[in-house]
Amino acid sequence: MEMIQVTEKEMMQKNIEEFSRLQDYMSVCEKDTESYKRMKRRYIELKVILTTSGVNLTEIDYIKE
């Protein structure tokens, strides 16, 4: 079976796209729901990943939690 290698740039793009999509979902969800709480946990994980990778979140983080 052939292994597919993902470049750092591709991984970064995937994380940025997921971060953006996740914020869209969070913006239409009630904050006191279990779904929102789970999304927020992933939001924080992605925020840490992107920040430590040097991505400036100023423009793309509109939830700001």
Q: How does this model look, in words?
A:
The chain is mainly α. The protein is built from two helices and no strands. The protein has a domain at 8-52. The longest helix has 20 residues, at 8-27. The N and C termini lie far apart (42 Å).
Summary of the model, kept short:
This protein is mainly α. The chain is 60% helix and 0% strand.
Keywords:
single chain; 65 residues; mainly alpha; 2 helices; 60% helix
Distance between the termini: 42 Å
**Outline type:** globular
Average residue pLDDT: 94
Overall helicity: 55-70%
Q: What order do the helices and strands follow?
A: HH
How is the biggest beta sheet arranged?
none
**Strand content bin:** under 5%
Contiguous helical run count: 2
Low-confidence parts? none
Question: What's the arrangement of secondary structure elements?
Answer:
Blueprint: H1 8-27, H2 34-52
Helix pairs in contact: 1-2
